[in-house]
Amino acid sequence: MTKEEAENGRDDMVIDGAEQANAIPDGFNANYLRIYYGKLFPHADMFKWMSYGNDGKHPACDKSYFGRREFSFTLENDIYIRFQSFNSVIELENSIKEKCPFKIDIGPVYSVDPAKRHAYAGDNVFTPVEREVVFDIDITDYDDVRYCCTGADVCLECWPLMTIAIKVIDAALRDDFGFNHILWVYSGRRGVHCWVCDGKARRLTNEQRAAIADYFRVYKGNENSHKKISLPGPVLHPFLARSYTEVLKGFFEAKLLPNQSLLSSEDRYEKILEMIPDASVASELRGRWQDNKRASMSKDDINLVRWDQLKSVLQSGKQKTQGIRRCVEEIVFSFTYPRLDMEVSKHMNHLLKAPFCVHPKTGRVCVPIDPNNCDEFDPTTVPTLSQLVEELNREGLRQDAENEWDRTSLGDSIKFFRTTFLQPLLKSCKEGIESSYNAKLQQSKNTLSWTRQGFFLTAFSPLAGKHHAWLI
Amino acid sequence: MEVVQSHRKSSSNNVIVSTLPLYRSAPPLEVRLEDFELFAMDRLRVLKGISDGLGRGKKPEEMEKLIADLWKANMRHPQANEEANKDIISHFVLRLVYCRTEELRKWFLSMETTLFRYRFRFQSSEAQRALMSEFKLPYKAVSNAEFESVKDKLGQVARSMGQTLAAADAIFYKVPFEEVPELVAGRRVFIHKGHAYVAMNQVVSLVVTQFRSYLSKALILTNRRVVGILAIVIILVDISFLVLRGYLTNPRKWTSTVREQEKDRLAPIVEALCTSYLGPDYSQENEVGEISLKDIYQIAKTSFPLCMRHLFEKVREDHHLKHGGRMQLGLFLKGVGLKLDDALAFWKAEFAPKVSAERFDKEYAYNIRHNYGREGKRTDYTPYSCQKIISSTPGVGDHHGCPYRHFSEENLRAALVRMGVSSRAVEDVMDKVRNRHYQLACTLTFEAVHGSSCDAGINHPNQYFIDSQRIMQSKDSAYLLELKKSCQVFSFALDEEPLCSVWL
């Protein structure tokens, strides 16, 4: 919803011999964007996705479905327009090409076409009826546990925090909640978005979405409150236990701890010692670490050495209190466990940036991320707008205007989107439409066959969800 | 139409399977007019008591006792069927009253659901099973074979909650996870491939969700129909005047007739009113005095409650506030009397070191105008009450919420000291906090800072502000009289001045 201002530009990008104006960051400007929307943005794929199989080819298709979806555009001069809706792929494509929005957000599917919302008054008439379950993970929420960058910066040292967040959440969405059609997208600068597109997910109420978000919630509190992770109970819930043993523990010990030097200096290890509820245990460790000599003689990484010491003290048989033993996990969780933005997930009407948009501040395209290979995802090599335009220019004009993206670095992303996400999703949607249609046919056949005395005409009204019956 | 009392089996064994009505349809019963109103008032007392208990953050065991006591005190009748009638009638009368606006519906739904939840827990397990089937929940018990395969995980979940998986009640139900959102949210069930494994003792959650969903729909339907009911309009107006917000904002509207009878009738309601938030919502800009921009800085030091002081300090310090903080503080300021233009100037000035004027206009101004009802669907947003603030969940980088609840002990102490609260008073406040009486803690703070008592108790930040301003401003008799009148509204226990009533 917000438009960030243009900052310093890069001066090493030269296209067609023309020089960059200094005000444009990484070659982001309306002209490039126009080319992008003209030749690269996958309008048809977005349309197919958002239609969820309601493309009119089957008698049971809901032809109004796509037209009831809200889009919002942020235009060049920070003009923000909501409640945009389109009845066909052509309308969508033309509007995007014409308006050239700097950002496109996707909202819910409403009960009626958003463009006609004013015609309906009163409670509950113009209301969201379907919306993907979405998650937004932003690395700035981890600023208190990363030392390499702050704010909007991201580097390869701290990006893995996003990677493990994807692994934890993705596994739970599939194994625990039984969802299948999940799309992870790079947000273009410093985070990731997740779109859960199963029919069941789309029809969840706000309360049910909040339940899912709370299921994932472990990190509570902020600088005003005390401890932020609390894992009560003698054992962890299976979801947390699995996340810990399969993802978090390994990552923390092998990567985060040494890379961020979490125990090497006093101000850093103090943060961890603060998390130990028993002051005597903390001071025992503090005493050992303040005495540097022995540690510096060892060849092993000082962070790992100290972590082992911490673990052996906290988990030793001597510790009687439950809370002390659990402390090790709490420390690991507080550094690595995913931090979701609860508000994004809890409301159906929350607007979220569309995949394949270009981020105005970085010029990077919001490309999908493969959750099965997320370790390999590198945010610093995601194609940028200017890079793509340059690639197009390099290839020169060609006869077929189809699939221009295939000649550019965007090609792989679009192919991935189609094969791993879109096609399975559409197949499943069509199967769903067909089977519910057949079920209804069967049901009305049964109704007809029962009544000999009179003729019952049954009709099904999808919006109202009621059966009407008239005795003729 | 179902008959509500399907459970009343008075068999020869005198086994009554369940006395818990589901309020599916309006009772075909004859009622005396006086009972109509009296029954409703009694039930209202129960609901208000529940609201109060929840507001104080009472734990489940405490709530159980509270509700049992409330029910006994207000709804009991020596004859079981009389009690059932009262139960049903009072519910339906209150439905009529509380269906009128979204906020009333939300409150009523919340309290009735809580009441139902605890009453359900009191039932025997047979009665519970009977009720479950009444709701037509098509959930099957987990087969032995499947149970064996997930037993470990079920045990793990139980132990994570400090319980054990007793072999005896190893009856589990497999239900789609979306049917038990509370259990999922609290990670109190094992879920696999979209199904939650719900223990028998958690079945409450299933049933309550169904009850809630049914009642929610019924309330909306009732609202659409209530226009046609004429016979009971007068009595309903009686009750609704108490309940809708209009009358409390302007005591001058009241006439001065009092009848002993009415005093008794009104007293418990009014008394109970102060503990749940059905008081003024401070949303009418015209009714509150104006505050200018330059005054804000001064009055923030003297008359803001801690929650707003903290936000105010933070915005001045950080030159920024996240969304939750902007809403909580922004709406409060609106309630205090800050006009839209002054509000825009205030936020703009505070954000200036970090946000340019242009960017402010693009990104923040719209939302402020929206809060004042000048944009979009022109809803006039009401400042948050204490209940709402206490139940919010501030996250990373947030400063909103109730400090008495959300701050750590040291941070809270430090903040109170900065406010000028004596160390003795700080201890009293911390004691209240430890017992989770957040609003009482705020009340004590008010009393310590102003050196005078506040019998009404703090229920709303704007109330804190108004009361504080009154004390600060003047010893004028007119103000004192005003203060006395508003105290009568909030706390009946005061002196001999008659309570005024507002009837037509």
UniProtKB/TrEMBL annotation, chain A:
Assigned keywords, A-Z: DNA replication, DNA-directed RNA polymerase, Metal-binding, Nucleotidyltransferase, Primosome, Transcription, Transferase
Protein name as catalogued: DNA primase
Family the entry assigns: Belongs to the eukaryotic-type primase small subunit family.
UniProt enzyme class: transferase
Keyword Transcription carried by entry: yes
EC number: 2.7.7.-
Entry superkingdom: Eukaryota
InterPro entries registered for this protein in UniProt: DNA_primase_S, DNA_primase_ssu_euk/arc
SUPFAM superfamilies: Prim-pol domain
Automatic annotation (TrEMBL), chain B:
Keyword Ligase applies: no
Lineage top rank: taxon: Eukaryota
Cofactor note: Binds 1 [4Fe-4S] cluster.
Recorded family membership: Belongs to the eukaryotic-type primase large subunit family.
Pfam families xref list: DNA_primase_lrg, DNA_primase_lrg_N
Family matches, as InterPro entries: DNA_primase_C, DNA_primase_lsu_euk, DNA_primase_lsu_euk/arc
Membrane-spanning ranges: 226-248
Protein name: DNA primase large subunit
Upper classification of the organism: Eukaryota, Viridiplantae, Streptophyta, Embryophyta, Tracheophyta
Keywords tagged on the record: 4Fe-4S, DNA replication, DNA-binding, Iron, Iron-sulfur, Membrane, Metal-binding, Primosome, Transmembrane, Transmembrane helix
Function: DNA primase is the polymerase that synthesizes small RNA primers for the Okazaki fragments made during discontinuous DNA replication.
Every DNA primase large subunit C-terminal domain range: 298-465
Source organism: Hibiscus sabdariffa (roselle)
Cofactor(s) recorded in Swiss-Prot or TrEMBL: [4Fe-4S] cluster
